[in-house]
Specification:
Blueprint lengths: L4 H12 L6 H8 L3 H15 L6 E5 L4 E5 L4 H8 L9 H13 L2 E2 H8 L4 H9 L3 E6 L7 E5 L1 H6 L13 H6 L5
Antiparallel strand pairs: 1-2, 3-5, 4-5
Helix pairs in contact: 1-3, 5-7
């Protein structure tokens, strides 16, 4: 493994930071032009995809950071995983899936799909920063619309919402509004 000096610099910065960084932030910290930062990140990504590394470079359009490789997580989750108090219930996961696949969506639309009140689930998902208000729907009462956050993408290892697994027709129908 022989990294360029620029790659070594960005590797060190990503190691020292506790939060994901954007390409713009890396550009400012390193003084490198944006295209050089992007080239270096591709170099690092290729290097860290090799089997002898325990971490990989996670890159999305908005952020970059190192994360443990998914195949190692079964060995790491007991010590480094989130506590069981942070696990989401089946109802919360169902609500989150509806929001992820139908966003932006109002609470009334979520409830029409689930068939039950979703106030508590929406509050829980917002408190975990997995969803956020994305605006108001242009209908009487102007209800809030919800969508997923960057933390949602990070938690599920997605680069964008387009990376969500594709649903079979039967599964997709479950996310359609009733009536």
């Amino acid at each position: 493994m022989k990294l360029t000096r620029e790659a070594s610099l960005i590797e060190a910065i990503l190691f020292l930071e506790n939060e994901p960084l954007s390409i713009d932030q890396l550009e400012k910290i390193t003084g490198l032009p944006k295209n050089a930062v992007e080239t270096v990140l591709e170099e690092l990504k290729t290097e860290y995809e090799k089997d002898y590394h325990g971490v990989c470079l996670y890159m999305s359009p908005d952020e970059v950071f190192f994360a443990p490789k998914k195949e190692l997580w079964p060995y790491l989750k007991d010590r480094y995983g989130k506590k069981t108090g942070n696990k989401l219930s089946k109802a919360a996961l169902e609500t989150l899936a509806i929001i992820a696949y139908r966003q932006p969506i109002t609470k009334a639309e979520i409830e029409a799909i689930r068939g039950v009140s979703s106030d508590a689930m929406v509050r829980l998902l917002m408190s975990r920063n997995l969803i956020q208000e994305t605006g108001k729907k242009d209908v009487p009462g102007r209800p809030a619309m919800y969508g997923t956050t960057k933390d949602f993408l990070r938690a599920f290892g997605l680069r964008s919402i387009a990376d969500l697994p594709k649903l079979e027709k039967e599964e997709a129908e479950k996310f359609e509004l009733n009536g």
